[in-house]
Amino acid sequence: MPQAASNEPSASTPMLSGEVLIVDDVPENLQVLGAILGAHGLTVRQAPGGAYALRSVTARRPDLILLDIRMPEMDGIETCRRLRDDPHTAGIPVLFLSASQDAEERIRSFAVGASDVIAKPVIVGELLARVAVHLSVAQLTAALRTANDRLARQAVDESALRHLAEGAALDRQARLDLALAAAGMGTWQIDGPGSAISFGHEAAAILGLEHDSAVMGWQEMMAGFPAEERPAIIAAWSQGFSGSQTIEIDAWWTHHGVRRRIRIRGRQSGAPDASQRVIGLVWDITDAFAQRQRLDQSEKLEALGRLAGGLAHDFNNHLQVILANLSLVQQVCRGDAATSHRLSCIERSSTTAAALVRDLLTFARHGQPAMTAICLSPMVADLESLLRCTIGDGKTLELALEQPGPCVSGSREQLFNALLNLCINARDALRAGGRVRIGVSRETVTGHRCRICAQEIQGIFAAISVSDDGIGIPEAIQDRIFEPFFTTKAPGQGSGLGLATVVGCMVAHHGHLLLDSHPGAGSSFRLLLPEAPSPA
Q: 503, exposed or middle or buried, with CB in 10 Å at 0-12, 13-18, 19+?
């Protein structure tokens, strides 16, 4: 016997929206429930059994299903299970209609996925309230699913855009890295005047930093610059944190014993959240600096060479006349001791003038001296007495001559003149009781910078060293002391040609010159010459 609703619909019940499928094998129940739900705004479809309901749902998906539990052929439990097994229908709310009070049946209903169980005969208000709740939940669920799908698509789109942006950023970074590598530059940044400095990979390689120490403290960075230049460098560095000033530093920098000429340029980043951040570039200009120095030196030597050539031509003509007439006068005045003494002074001055002309020609590199095989240790030993006189009283001369010692192909006169000039400079740098040490040895050199060609050299050389424990040479002028006419001595005490003569000698002998000097700790000059077979 059919079970109809026991209450009439309430006029105060709100109108509903959506489509409901009613599944019941009793036609009267289908008619009554359809009338109730239809009267409240719902679209109603009917199915007289479980199999028919499955076909109907497959054809068009409803928003909610009212399903009778006890039906012939396929009951509500089996119908609900099949609905839940199909992904297309698994989310449809299923409300069971049951006239039984059996708790076990209710448990089975919820076990197969029922959303709710409504007792028969139905109470209209309860039916409408439960249908409204489950439709609302279903609609919210659908809306959430739609929103989630939209967010998922948006996330995918944003992820794709982000990947495109990241790819473009990586591409720009790769292009920047290639440009920086081609230019020999690296990047750095600092967040405040006294903060640590972060160096990029290229900058760390340029400065000789280990990969895990690409962050360096500001004080440590400043300590690498020459002490006498630090005040100006610190002032230039500080200007970069005051407005739009650009940091411009061009100086020698030493790290782990390796000396480099570096150029630093930077300015504030301009980012609103990093008002004190300064970003910039650093590059190694050691080779360019050396080339510029060599060019300057070459231009000076070219001008001085022309001057020396003209002086040598004219001065030698005058010296020839002076010395020829001096020889004639000395023959006439042999018996006059006073006159002979004056003539001897004239001769010494003329000889000194001739030596000056030879010095000019040496550093200006006019002509190639005659080369002979020379063993360095015997050569220095033969000159010991003269060198001791040059050093003077109250100062010590030490000789450390390797035996038998290396041999070279060279000019004895030029090598002696270079050695004598180094000894005179060492003597002038000594304090009272100071010491000069001259050494001759066969030396293996690796990674030292030649002061003439400014290149790192390596190999086995015949070495002459002149060291002193004097006042030392400031780092700021160590590259200038080899320039012609540059001198730190008082006016009238030096011509500035001594070390230029040494440079000319080394160039003529295809040698190298090393200098190691620190203020207050003395200086050491090493002349490195290609070794040659010893003479027979």
A: buried
